[in-house]
Amino acid sequence: MATLFEAWQGVQGRIDAACTACARNPAEISLLAVSKTFPASAVRELYMLGQRHFGENYAQELSQKYAELADCTELHWHFIGPLQSNKTKQVAECADWVHAIDRSKIAERLNQQRPEHLPLLNVCLQVNVSGEESKSGVSPAQLFELAAAVTQLPRLKLRGLMCIPEATDDEVKLAKQFQLLKQCQAKLIQAGFTMDTLSMGMSADLELAIANGSTLVRVGSAIFGARHYSQQEKQ
Ligand SMILES: *Cc1c(COP(=O)(O)O)cnc(C)c1O
User: Fold this and answer.
1) pLDDT, tens digit (0-9, with 9 covering 90-100), for 95-134
2) Mean pLDDT along residues 24-38
3) SS3 assignment for the chain
4) How far is the CA of 168 from the centre of ligand 1 (A)?
5) Which atom of ligand 1 is nearest to the CA of 221?
6) Engineered SS bond to 122: which of 31, 159, 179, 223, CB 3.0-4.6 Å?
7) Which residue puts its alpha carbon closest to atom 13 of ligand 1?
8) Could you tell me the domains of the chain?
9) Band (228; pLDDT cuts 50, 70, 90)
């Protein structure tokens, strides 16, 4: 079995190879290590090896790991899960980034609850690129309005867009959905919004996401191994 170090290096090798294949600079891609369901000790081990950005899906789990790893001063937490109103305070106090903003009410609460002594909270807007009804995210048509609302909030910094494409192996479909996110970003930039992040690509599809413009890949199982859900439901 590969060690955590080998698995992490393996993912970095995949990112480098994907960049070579599409003539991009690997320095443009951030690797977010998604540590949900794995213990703080695994996060610490990877942090000691040099990984700095970690992603969590559940507010309670984030705040526990945040407290346990408070001595890791260069560790940046990204909240990547769906966020309910009653969980925004915990997230506003622990996270450096929130990826899945899909309504202004959540953004407003995060803005109010972001502690004064912390830097601005970086946010990405989640776009429903597959059009599936079950998926969270705003539709491309509603995106402009949400982006405009978020840029009015002084404690948040709009950094970009995020998507979770359809669960399919069909690379043509996936590529279209990644391209749609890229086009949404281009339209917003053209309309005067400033942003630098496209959060797309996970363990199974990071190469395709990079080929289609990703600047941040969210990788869990390819680094930490298979997740075992006990009390938590798979999202
Ligand atoms: C769990 C999760 C990931 C990581 O998924 P893997 O397939 O394990 O790489 C990425 N993004 C989000 C939003 C997740 O919930």
Assistant:
1) 999 999 999 999 999 999 999 999 999 999 999 999 999 9
2) 98
3) CCCHHHHHHHHHHHHHHHHHHCCCCHHHCEEEEECCCCCHHHHHHHHHHCCCEEEECCHHHHHHHHHHCCCCCCCEEEECCCCCHHHHHHHHHHCCEEEEECCHHHHHHHHHHCCCCCCCEEEEEEECCCCCCCCCCECHHHHHHHHHHHHCCCCEEEEEEECCCCCCCCHHHHHHHHHHHHHHHHHHHHCCCCCCEEECCCCCCHHHHHHCCCCEEEECHHHHCCCCCCCCCCC
4) 14
5) 8
6) 159
7) 80
8) 4-225 (3.20.20.10)
9) confident
pTM for the structure as a whole:
0.96
Best of 30, 54, 80 to mutate for ligand 1, by most ligand atoms within 8 A of CB? 80
Question: Ligand 1 centroid to 36 CA: how many Å?
Answer: 9
Ligand 1 lined by 235 (C-beta under 6 Å)? yes
